[in-house]
Write a structure and sequence with these properties.
The structure is a homodimer of 249-residue chains. The first copy, chain A, folds into two domains: 15-158, Jelly Rolls, CATH 2.60.120.10; 161-238, Orthogonal Bundle (Arc Repressor Mutant, subunit A). With 249 residues, the first copy, chain A, is an alpha+beta fold. The first copy, chain A, contains eight helices and nine strands. Chain A is globular. Chains A and B meet through strand 4 and helix 4 of A and strand 4 and helix 4 of B.
């Protein structure tokens, strides 16, 4: 059972997306057809292994990136050598796309955490489109605003949720597509990375996970999680949030 | 000495700004002259007392706000009744201005924390300007992106700084305009609010403040803080940050 679930999760996260697939989605669908064609033509596919750093925080930004398969973490390193993880991105995500309106440098570093197929595109094409195509600019503005709202949400959750609720919230987000009230899923990354993404020390994460199991009816076995009552988990978690499940951001 | 310093701080934070002063600054300086004139003409001044809630999270957004004098906190309330403070804004700040590209609702509540003179303006005028004036749109895009970067910074600091460093960072930001290496300043708000702004429980804040005094040469007496060596404070704090003092965000 656990092995099947792991395999299912692996297949879901590794299902490779087509190059330029992001062009059909928000905000890129508002690009002019000729601009889309040129963008896709100038796409440069690359394969990277786990641990490869694609760019560092404050590097001059020339290109933006689309994740066909694999996972990427966005991070910043402090002067003292510690690392803050700002986000972890699944296949289908785009990153570095706002650098041209953020001073022309990347606002974070990007590192491969699971072998990746990446396609990069010239950032200058996006910048030109923003200057020449008002309809796209408005959509891109909404896109950048939505990213800011997601960060606001992160700050809210870090302010008010305890460790067990924060882990519960992370797991609940993996259940958003579920139609029933019970499910079995597996954690998409190793626990140390989830802890870092949630801004927790590993021991805080372990204690939070233990408390979460004690307080809800969840059973956690390695990376596999059985949730017999999603609504109960939502009640436990969402009391420390300004939204209700299933949340939009 | 302490009283003089308090009085000086009070005068600085209460120096009333002129209505529409924000129009001369980024990103609003790129509005067309006629749009600026219309905006200022439709400005509605109001005076609010401490505790007044100007709007709540997810209220329909009709207007945006300029703080002439006083302080405002931006917050969200959880279903369980806890509060997360997203930001605390000084005189001269604008808030609610991005709501038209954030789904037409406010992304936070706004509450007066020190008696305020506020001027509000129709959000629709900003939205029209965004649709009709490409030069303004680009500037507004940069403005929204910069707000997102400030949130990224907040997440980074909450991930890697300990409580003493976080308080030190807050104090250091108050020293950014100092030309020398020593200063005396007073905390702009009461300690419980600073703790909430930094995402800390009051007791964590107290312990952090005690540790900060022990680890650096600072002397804290009520709201008055004497810093004999700003560079030393920066070394202590900025080791847990990706920027160096004086930082931009």
């Amino acid at each position: 059972m656990a092995v099947d679930t792991k395999e299912r999760c692996r297949n879901e996260t590794l299902g490779a997306r087509a190059d330029g697939a992001f062009c059909d989605g928000f905000p890129f669908s508002k690009m002019r057809p000729a601009a889309k064609t040129r963008l896709i033509k100038e796409g440069m596919p690359q394969v990277f292994s786990r641990g490869h750093v694609i760019f560092m925080h404050e590097d001059q930004a020339q290109r933006f990136y689309f994740i066909k398969s694999g996972w990427i973490k966005l991070f910043r390193e402090t002067i003292g050598g510690d690392e803050a993880i700002l986000d972890v991105l699944p296949p289908g995500s785009v990153f570095g796309e706002a650098a041209f309106c953020e001073g022309g440098v990347y606002a974070y570093g990007a590192e491969v955490i699971e072998n990746c197929e990446i396609v990069s595109y010239p950032l200058s094409l996006l910048e030109t489109e923003t200057r020449e195509n008002g309809e796209f600019t408005i959509e891109f503005l909404k896109h950048v605003a939505a990213r800011g709202l997601a960060r606001d949400k992160e700050i809210e959750l870090r302010s008010v949720q305890n460790a067990a609720q924060r882990i519960g919230c992370f797991i609940l987000r993996l259940c958003r597509e579920e139609s029933g009230n019970e499910t079995t899923l597996c954690l998409p990354w190793e626990k140390s990375l989830i802890a870092a993404r949630l801004g927790m020390a590993p021991e805080t994460f372990s204690r939070g996970l233990a408390r979460l199991q004690k307080d809800t009816a969840m059973a956690i076995n390695g990376p596999v999680i059985e949730i017999p009552d999603i609504k109960m988990l939502a009640r436990y978690t969402c009391v420390a949030c300004s939204n209700v499940f299933p949340c939009k951001n």
